[in-house]
Amino acid sequence: MADPTPTPGIHHVTCVAGDPQRNLDFWVETLGLRLVKRSINQDDPGTYHFFFGDAEGTPGTSMTFFPWEDLPQGKVGSGQVSRVGFRVPEGSLEFWEERFDEHGVDYDDRVERFGGEARSASEKASGDQPRAETVLPFRDPDGLPVELIESDIGDDDPTTAWTEFVPADAAIRGFHSVTLWLADPDPTEELLETMGFENVGTEEAEGDTPGDQRTRFAAEGPVGKYVDVVPTIQGGRNGHGTVHHVAFQTPSDADQEAMRTAVRSRGLNPTQQIDRHWFRSVYFREHAGVLFELATNGPGYDTDEPLEDLGGRLVLPGKFADRREQIEANLPDVTIPRAERTEADD
């Protein structure tokens, strides 16, 4: 069997929230991400599905949520994505600490990670001097563990800053990484290598269970390129403030089918392709139980709304379009945060 085309990295991450209005207010107004799609959970159409991303909904930037209000509070533990990291421009963490103080966000002290030594082969070949990552851990209103990580955002970066609430020199620019907590990391680490990630180093897992080791795997794409693995047997439970699944980019249908075949060769049981309207998906649980998705990069979020109007209306894909009146009647009313504008802004 030929090796599949390596994944460039993370496509999106989907999480569980509680109150939908609180979720919108935090991720749009406080964190400054754009609501690029307001839709429904296609497996549970009585629940919203919010997609937050950069200005254009670029693959590798969308954090999505199912706000299931009737679920209990979750707890991060083994067999879960334990935290999600986002890239922010270098030198912007002071801005974010001040913003978090202003908005009452629960955050921790900054930590340094990897000392710059964990780099993929292409990063080493570039000749750039390694440097430590600076990380600002915080939690969203549902208790979801999140990190902002200072990163070099080059002029050729594929993401586009959304500046409605946060200036471009501090705006979130897509994913940096996800961290997996696993009781037995070895099978999952082998799977990541099958998917095209390279083991680039290990260090003590600062901020996780004391004494644990954090092993980093790197893809070759520019956004969402890292998966960190930390071994732990700490118990967890699904609910508010936990990750539902992490999706990895398989840009084309052919890439996805080749990766699906490779995943099956690891003894796993991926689904057939499912049309999610803005991308096509394959799902499977990796060896430790974390739900993985393979997602194509197209058709994209602008196939049913003009780019300038993304997130402006409730979009009901495919078979749900004829049920709009019924679906809207069962969803709570929400208001999309908008920045106050003055004549000087126009």
Which properties best describe this structure?
346 residues; alpha+beta; 2,3-Dihydroxybiphenyl 1,2-Dioxygenase, domain 1; 9-stranded mixed beta sheet; 8-stranded mixed beta sheet; 6 helices; 16% helix
3D architecture notes:
With 346 residues, this protein is an alpha+beta fold. The protein has one domain (10-345): 2,3-Dihydroxybiphenyl 1,2-Dioxygenase, domain 1 (Roll). It contains six helices and 17 strands. It has helices at residues 20-30, 93-103, 121-125, 185-194, 253-265, 324-330, and strands at residues 10-17, 34-41, 44-53, 62-67, 80-89, 106-107, 111-113, 133-139, 145-151, 175-182, 198-204, 213-218, 226-231, 242-249, 274-275, 280-285, 291-295. Strands 5, 6, 7, 8, 9, 10, 11, 12 and 13 form a nine-stranded mixed β-sheet that branches. An eight-stranded mixed β-sheet has the order 2-3-4-1-14-17-16-15. The termini are far apart.
Structural class: alpha+beta
Q: Measured on Cα atoms, how large is the radius of gyration?
A: 19 Å
What is the CA-CA span between the terminal residues? 58 Å
**Uncertain segments of ≥5 residues (pLDDT<50)?**
none
Report the portion of residues in β strands: 25-35%
Average pLDDT figure: 93
**What is the correct CATH architecture?**
Roll
Largest sheet: 9 strands, mixed
